[in-house]
Every structure is written in C-alpha cells, then in structure tokens.
Amino acid sequence: MTKNAAGRAGRPGPEIRCTGTAVLAPPRDAGAPPAPPGLEIDVARVHGDTAVVAVAGEIDLHTADTLRARLVALHAAGSRRLVVDFAGVVFCDATGLGALVAAHNEISADGGRIVLARVRPAQIRLLRITGLHRLFTLHNDPDEACV
Length: 147
Fold this sequence. Notes:
alpha/beta, 5 strands, disordered N terminus
C-alpha cells in the first residue's frame, strides 16, 4: 500500500444520515402481487381461454419475479394461453428472460402456453442470441397471436 493510499484509508468517511417517510400503497387485487415501480402488468383483454397481458416498463432484477408470478397466477386462474404484449417494454435483461423461461416451464408443464407479441427489435435480437426465439412464438400483433 502506498503512503497516499494508507493516508486515505485511515481517513473517516462522511457521516451519512437517513430519514424515512411512510408510504401507503393503494389497494390491489388480493391474488395479484404488486408490480414494482417501473413495471406495469395489466390484462388487456381475454378471448376465451387466452389472455392478452400488456407489459410496460423495465423487466430486470427488481421486476422479473413479479412478472413470472403474475403470468403463473393468470394461468392458474384459467387462462390456458397467455399472449404477452411487449409493446411497452423498454428494457429486458437476462433476469427478465429467466423469468419468462421459468413462467414458460411452469405453465407448459400444466398444458398452457406463452407467446410474445410486439417485441422490439433489440429484444428480438436478445431472444435470437440466447436461442429463446425457438421457445417462444413471436407475433407482430397481439390479436393475431390469439388465433
């Protein structure tokens, strides 16, 4: 360790103080986990046993498990086929892909299916690089995916 580094290491850091404020969350559906900030998950419409799920925001480490849980819950509630509309997804990392695969595995084991619609070019590239374009059927239009 150099003399300068030793001097810096011995200096005390700045004092940090935290103050908190209570935040009350709005009521939600009893069966649905809350979506974390930065992610919105809504059932846009239902066609028979197919639900179109509109997803908007970022799918990452903080939001991926909520997406997985919501998709699995929708399937358990009777939607055999889920069309995940990615039009509003601005970011999806490897954790998000992992959540989609986990949801696919749970849902397909019970005879269900997940398809993706309106996936952005950057996300299509990620699906192709990882080989997941072979697992998920991709559609340009959510209504086309419902057929």
